[in-house]
Protein 1
Amino acid sequence: MAVCETCGNDYDMAFEVHAQGAVHTFDSFQCAIHAMAPICEHCGARVIGHGVQAGEHWYCCAHCARQEGSDGIVDRVMAGMSG
């Protein structure tokens, strides 16, 4: 069995996540997300999807990025628009 690094549960179905040269052990995706997901720099939500990166900053969506002053970031391109 292995111990989850987030909650401390000693669980027979724990799994490892290998990221950036480190190995992490978790008992659930919830614990993995809590420990590893970036946090939106505007609203504080965990970024568990693609998110939006503006320079070195991470946001959960284009709205939050714009609220922090990042220009040109949109959630989708309107049909018929180019560029």
Protein 2
Amino acid sequence: MSILFLLVGLGLILSGANFLTDGAAALAKRFNISSLVIGLTIVAFGTSAPELTVSIVSAINGSAELSIGNVVGSNIFNILMIVGVTAVVAPITITKGTLTKEIPLAILSCVVVLICANDVFLETGTENILNRADGLLMLCFFAIFLGYTFAIAHDNTGEEQAEIRPLSTWRCLLYIVGGLVALIFGGRLFVDGSSEIARSLGVGESVIGLTLVAMGTSLPELATSVVAALKKNPEIAIGNVIGSNLFNVFFVLGMSATITPLPLGGITNVDLFYLLAVSLLLFFAGRYYKVRTITRVEGVFMIFAYVVYTGYLIYML
């Protein structure tokens, strides 16, 4: 029954995110909001909606390790597996702006989590916990990121507009409401199922969050990036991954910690430093080996790095 809950919940989450994104994008288009702004905000929210739903529901249910592990694990999966697989399909060309602005912002988000999560080491508390102050700080960073995003959109209004399927207003609203309902119920089923599986196997929720839940909630990003690569437009993968990672840390984790403090539990500095390391790897891979290009060789290395990390988690059980 737990596996059924997990699969049904995941299906509702993915379909809900798809309907929510389509409805919101079409509604925004009807009000003449630029496609670029839609892509940088609504579509980014849509692909990260599974992480948002699972993390908030987990936080409310008292499964803090699942909530944090979902974000950290998803971000590691996004960089190593999504970028890695996409680069194997087709080498990824990175724009100069992404290399000098967006990727450093993603690295900054890792540093923020490291600082906020190390209360014991920094002698600011008796246990490592993301409290409401940490959550509000992350939401402030998210507001700054949104301001930057709109500034970039304003500076690039002449770019080619993305194709968005037109919908009537009532269908837009139906898609949005239906998507939100599917996300809420799917998120609850997914968290209940994964938590029960963790308990039955004697596996900590932190490991489940870092692996199974992270992989499941990252499926929209993976699908988007692989399809982009098959359409000979693999550079979209970088924007998709970086935007999702920033959204996951600054908004998803920030919102979850604001709702209720999140003790780190089984999430350790090994996981947080590994996230920082793979973010740096993404920067150096694009910067030095072949200028502003993630090659197939680098893609294979990234996939291998994810397999090693997963093996480490299994070994530590």
Protein 3
Amino acid sequence: MQMFLNLKKTPWGGKYTVSNASIGFKYSISPFYFPVFSEKIFYTQINFQVSEINESDFLYHQITLPPDFSKMIAKRRCEFLAGRICAQLSLKQFGLIQCANVGMAADRSPVWPEGIVGSITHTSSTAAACIASSDIYKNIGIDIEVIFNDETANSIKSEVTRYPELNVLKDEALSETLLITLIFSAKESIFKAIYNDVGYIFGFDCVSLIELNQYDMLFTLTTSLSPEWQVGDRVRVAYRIVDGYVYTSMVVAKTS
């Protein structure tokens, strides 16, 4: 199946969209706003529209149906498909033309082809994936968030942030709402970047912001999570703020 014979210009969200009369899912390629700077890392970002889609949309894009597909609402189906399309396109950039499908583990994390590490993220209208060789990088974590409104920020503030982190924020020019969004997104990226080493879900309080710079944030682990990640270890998360969105990324280089 030739997937991209129907590339057409679109007036919304980006330069191109995939169009076919038999499918409902539409997307356009978007600039990649995540702060990941390396020729060894491959990435894709798309904009998409939520619509009622079915098995034919997944078949058309050669994406395997998730196990709970029949229970998914339209929004969740589109988000899942969008993320896997980004992963597929990133893998093709890498050179994996015939092995571009990303599975899903029992814990719902992506299962990448052998020799690949990567990360997928999405909002309700934007998705992105970032991949690299496991010979060069141990793991990658990326996250995108729409900047929270005041009500959302206040409702999750106590769960996402610790008192010392709020002290770090006091002298910054950014609003507290934006800063809470940044911390939330950064901790999501940290979780994705070290989850394979840790092997279980850990809370926001396991890492704490200690420094905020113009382009990145420095965190310290407040508890030991695994032999590789011990209390006191420091991790750096890069970020960008673009058009009402926060983009964060953490890349773990392979050391041996």
Protein 4
Amino acid sequence: MRRLSIHRPLQKVRNPARHLRSLACWADSFADDYPEREPKYINFKLATLDRLVEGPTAKLEWQRAAVEQLIKAAQHLVAARPADEQGKSWVAMLLGYPSLWSSEVTVFFDREYFNRFIALPHNDASICQQLGITLPANFIECAYLTQWQDEDDDGQLQQYSEQRFVIYEASFLAE
């Protein structure tokens, strides 16, 4: 279950092992279960407590475990894809770092829409390398930096940036 810590953003994460077990159950729930076709895509947000994977309370080992569960969920979706969906839908993970709570596993049904995500200017960053994760051979990782401006609570214009990663099926390039 996704939970946002609005009133306690700095409180220590209680029983992280329970949260990680719940996240593993979430990833396993995709085994043998491929989603119904949608117009462009369907996404499944990372189902965990926000403080577990981002902010000052998050630990690198928890972030690593969360990304590993996203990869596991994506692998389950690839394995569950019916034969009539081969070449018509693609599984990808969209991750933000350090804002991992916004991460998701996405099944794209529209090739042109998916191309928008991997056609952005890439850089050499790697979330898998940063977290010490070995990416399965059937997936490719690309990264890009996104920047935006927004006003803070005092009305001052602030500059923000986030490294974003797209991890997608290697078979997409072959088609």
